[in-house]
Design goal:
318 residues, seven-stranded parallel β-sheet, four-stranded antiparallel β-sheet, 8 helices, elongated
């Protein structure tokens, strides 16, 4: 039976049971997962939630680029100092955020990824022989993880046929002199209906770190919008899944890389609408039906004023 953890007070941990008959339910906005066998535990401290991840563990990390990544759980791993990790993720983060932090501290031994073009430290470590890298086509990576969660050991795909993926020899690790220390192995090839396919093995992990919208004490996890990227299949492909969720979206200070400064004049969330003034700060002007100002204060990471003309949230007019 797989363990299941939940982290409360903004961060939540959940473990799904791989191969236990878990079912995914999909909707137009969000998705959630349930498992037949679960052991659920909540944490208020992300470090406590990940401290049992040992050296040498295989960790599946959800998200796409910097979107939907479990940044607080990654930061917690940085604090535990765990080493020799195999990290499976669509990307390697950037130099100062996401998995880039664990690369910089040299806690990752091998990366299994698809897109790694935004991390200079990743490139340096790979080319200097300090990091093992298994590059995998993005769709193949997603299916390898999905197959692992479904209990399918391998599958055939046409992607990569006729390339180094099929032929083998792609450098996984370099020696310091630039020669290849570890090379990828050739894939088995079969023909179906006149088309060639290569065999790809499923990916499973010891732990998965994912980000979700909501989680409950029964172990149900809801993924919403862009945070669904790679987070959904990761849950089922790991023995223990740590879910980071309901964290403050409006903060006193931005913790993500800035894309613009003082360029926002209104913030619309699923709970409330704020006007933004460069000098006065935030003013609450609309509130979702059924919620109170106290509810918004609890889920907002900074102070705000309340408009004397506070009204229920309105539909956006065309």
């Amino acid at each position: 039976m797989a363990a299941l953890k939940l982290l409360s007070s903004g961060l939540r941990l959940c473990a799904s049971a791989r191969g236990s008959g878990a079912t995914w339910y999909k909707g137009c906005v969000c998705s959630f997962s349930t498992s037949a066998h679960r052991h659920t535990k909540f944490y208020t401290d992300p470090v406590e939630a990940v401290k049992d991840i040992p050296d040498g563990a295989t960790v599946l990390v959800g998200g796409f680029g910097l979107c939907g990544i479990p940044e607080n759980l990654i930061d917690a791993l940085l604090k535990t100092g765990v080493k020799g990790l195999t990290a499976v993720s669509n990307n390697a983060g950037v130099d100062n955020f996401g998995l880039g932090l664990l690369l910089r501290s040299k806690q990752i031994k091998r990366m299994v990824s698809s897109y790694v073009g935004e991390n200079a430290e990743f490139e340096r470590q790979y080319l200097s022989g300090e990091l093992e890298v298994e590059l995998t086509p993005q769709g193949t990576l997603a299916e390898r993880i999905r197959a692992g969660g479904a209990g399918v050991p391998a599958f055939y795909t046409p992607t990569g046929y006729g390339t180094l993926v099929q032929e083998g020899g792609s450098p996984i690790k370099y020696n310091k002199d630039g020669s290849v220390a570890i090379a990828s192995k050739p894939r088995e090839v079969r023909e179906f209906n006149g088309q060639h396919f290569i065999l790809e093995e499923a990916i499973t992990g010891d732990f998965a770190l994912v980000k979700a919208w909501k989680a409950d004490r029964a172990g149900n996890v809801i993924f919403r919008k862009s945070a669904r990227n790679f987070n959904l299949p990761m849950c089922k492909a790991a023995e223990t899944t740590v879910v980071e969720g309901n964290a403050h979206k409006i903060m006193e200070k931005c913790t993500l890389p800035l894309t613009g400064k003082q360029c926002v004049n209104r913030i619309i969330t699923e709970k409330a609408v704020f006007d933004v003034d460069k000098k006065k700060g935030l003013t609450l002007i609309e509130l979702w039906e059924g919620l109170t100002v106290d509810d918004v204060q609890k889920s907002t990471g900074c102070d705000f004023a309340v408009s004397p003309k506070l009204m229920p949230m309105q539909q956006i007019a065309n």
